[in-house]
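Structure first, sequence second, as always.
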């Protein structure tokens, strides 16, 4: 069954009536969110030939120009086959550092033949917006931008400048992400609105909301063993494949030292209170009390949802070797993918892996390149925590709020690496069953629109108006 847009927006509002604290409506902003989201999804902003990220930037620029920004306030900067957008709403106090709103306009590839609906033809159906970028992250970029426009429409004047900084290749090389962060390294803090921060029950009730204050460092190490080779009829003890396999077995069985930081400590403490599984909740509580508790570690490391939060993780992901069926292998190679807990360097972890492998013949090389950077956790700032608490309550009602550390990577790492606090803090809520980012039939619930505008207008008023 398909509904008209007014009916869908009305349906979304009614679904939230019992679980959110609705402030006054923002009908113009709400309509603009859906319009910009649909038009952005229709633009195939994928790396390679025909990349339309620049057109997405132009779409957002035109919306800002219509709302009162001047051409000199907005930059669209081409870089390779993509582009990035920086738009500034100047604050009344030039002595205050700016507040940055970060998102990305590019999306991962999507093949129409694999989808039920064309990924680049936005479809509104049964209370959802379908299309590539619906949840990651064109909808949220449009929601944040429309909320900023709404503040200007309502006569708000920020004391500190608000800078909208949307990158164009977050899903691939992050070249624009690095450039933007370098340009804005004097910012007060960054609100990264990439993805959904809240979780809904399958019945649509808000369960909890999470802000991201840290992320692990993505790293790939190449491990190679080389031998002279020879005829397979005359085997020798130093077989490259066997040696590499022995090293991989030791690495696969190794567990890095469990760790806590300010963000993860608060995550475990908060998650304990809402975790429905008593065994898992008890393990979380015990881990906070003693990160080396063996029983707690056994439970947490056995759970896919928690194993990456305990420590650095490294796992073999690819392997190749040999050159002929009847020859001793001259080389064997593996890739080790690591997600490094904040506070450790790439050389440090590689040295630890070399020690674990205990294979002198194995040569380790960092092959990550420039697509990742070591970044510390952002501080748990009282002003930020208070502001998001107020905004979430205004939008969604009294919902538990938990800080988190991501095992993935986002534009935030480039800011954090330069000493700028960055926080993943989007407005939207999503059911676990609706999580299709990077996958088929990506979608976002339209019930996020009205509370999303409330969230951003509340949050930005607090963070930029003081």
């Amino acid at each position: 069954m398909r509904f008209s847009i007014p009916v869908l927006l009305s349906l979304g509002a009614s679904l939230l009536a019992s679980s959110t604290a609705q402030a006054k409506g923002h009908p113009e902003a709400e309509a603009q969110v859906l319009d910009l989201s649909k038009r952005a999804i229709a633009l195939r902003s994928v790396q390679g030939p025909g990349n339309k990220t620049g057109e997405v930037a132009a779409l957002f620029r035109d919306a800002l120009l219509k709302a009162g920004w001047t051409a000199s306030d907005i930059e669209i900067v081409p870089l390779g086959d993509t582009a990035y957008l920086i738009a500034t709403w100047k604050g009344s106090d030039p002595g205050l550092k700016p507040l940055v709103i970060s998102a990305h306009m590019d999306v991962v590839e999507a093949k129409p033949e694999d989808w039920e609906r064309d990924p680049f033809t936005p479809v509104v159906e049964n209370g959802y917006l379908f299309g590539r970028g619906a949840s990651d992250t064109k909808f949220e970029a449009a929601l944040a931008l429309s909320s900023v426009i709404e503040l200007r429409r309502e006569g708000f004047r920020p004391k500190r400048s608000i800078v909208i900084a949307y990158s164009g290749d977050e899903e691939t090389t992050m070249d624009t992400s690095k450039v933007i962060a370098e340009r804005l390294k004097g910012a007060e803090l960054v609100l990264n609105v990439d993805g959904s921060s809240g979780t809904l029950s399958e019945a649509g009730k808000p369960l909890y909301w999470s802000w991201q204050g840290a992320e692990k460092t993505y790293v790939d190490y190449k491990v190679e063993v080389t031998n002279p080779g020879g005829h397979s009829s005359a085997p020798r003890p130093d077989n490259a494949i066997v040696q590499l396999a022995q090293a991989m077995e030791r690495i696969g069985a190794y567990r890095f030292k469990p760790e806590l930081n300010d963000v993860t400590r608060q995550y475990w403490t908060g998650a304990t209170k809402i975790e429905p599984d008593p065994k898992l909740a008890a393990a979380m509580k015990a881990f906070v009390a003693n990160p080396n508790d063996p029983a707690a570690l056994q439970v947490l490391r056995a759970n896919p949802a928690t194993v990456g939060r305990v420590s650095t993780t490294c796992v073999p992901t690819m392997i190749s070797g040999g050159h002929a069926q009847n020859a001793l292998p001259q080389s064997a190679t593996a890739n080790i993918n690591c997600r490094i807990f904040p506070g450790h360097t790439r050389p440090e972890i590689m040295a630890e892996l070399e020690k674990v492998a205990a294979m002198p013949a194995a040569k380790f090389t960092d092959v990550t390149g420039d697509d990742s950077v070591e970044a510390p956790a952002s501080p748990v700032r009282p002003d930020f925590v208070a502001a998001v608490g107020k905004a979430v309550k205004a939008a969604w009602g009294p919902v538990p709020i938990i800080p988190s550390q991501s095992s993935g990577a986002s534009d935030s790492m480039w800011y954090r690496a330069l000493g700028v606090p960055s926080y993943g803090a989007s407005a939207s809520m999503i059911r676990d069953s609706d999580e299709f980012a990077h996958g088929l039939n990506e979608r976002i619930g339209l019930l996020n629109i009205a509370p999303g505008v409330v969230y951003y207008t509340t949050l930005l008023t607090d963070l930029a108006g003081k």
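Margin note: Residues 381 and 421 are 9 Å apart (CA to CA).
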